[in-house]
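To whoever is on call:

I kicked off a structure prediction for a single chain this morning and the downstream step that reads the tokens threw a length-mismatch warning. I double-checked the sequence; it's 280 residues and nothing unusual in it as far as I can see. Pasting both halves so you can look.
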Amino acid sequence: MRERSRVEETIYAMQRAGAGSLQVISDFDMTLTRFAHNGKRVATTHNILDNRLLINEDCTKKMRELLNIYYPIEIDASRSVEEKLPLMVEWWTKVHELLIQQKIKKDLLAQAVRESSTMLRDGYKVFFDGLAEHQVPLLIFSAGVGDVLEEVIRQNHVFHPNVHIISNYMDFDRTGVLRAFKGQLIHTFNKREGALSHAAGLRELQGRPNVLLLGDSLGDLTMADGVSEPQNILTIGFLNDQVEERKETYVNSFDIVLVKDETMDVPNAIFRYITSSRDK
């Protein structure tokens, strides 16, 4: 934490305003899901598709090659966002083209999720259920694959009515075969445009000027840019990888930085405090 007193003041202000003024905006992969478990990386929504049910070995190989080229660029602290932007578009576009070529079948997605290593962070149920109980909207803003993301939260029994998702959704033909991706591409560093075009139009988010924002990438900090007349924004950054190289940038950018923390303990504690006065 860089400015403890400002963080405390923001939380106090959010508590005074209560749950009715709050919305939560969160990234998904490596933010709501774990980064690693028992020393092994946990599958992201794109990784879940790396299943022989859905794609062949050649596609897996090509996707891994792309990951090895572009992921180091994505997390490179020495490069500017402007530099990274066209390269991220390039990466996501190439991956989506590979997936479309595989003619993925919609009815196999649920099985692929069941067979994957994906895991939501410890304490996820308290987090999702608490937000639903207090009718606080949760906007999940993901550069992953929306259809897979929905299936993950559905299988974990936390796809409550207060959950709204902005992501890259698959477009299936009438026989349930992937033929394209819908709408504007969302990658790590263009969430601002998505926030302004999609989130700003969600009626459920109107009149909620306090924002708890969760992310694992500096690009996630723009997810609240669609909030009309924000009053208090508290940002929590999960620093999962390349800790020493990125720690200073994260501490200077997020209000609270959680280093290699695979739990929802801190967001849960903050939310519990914000809602505490309302329960008395």
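Update from on-call: the warning came from a stale cache, not from the record. Cleared it. Sanity check on the structure: The chain is about 40% helix and 15% strand.
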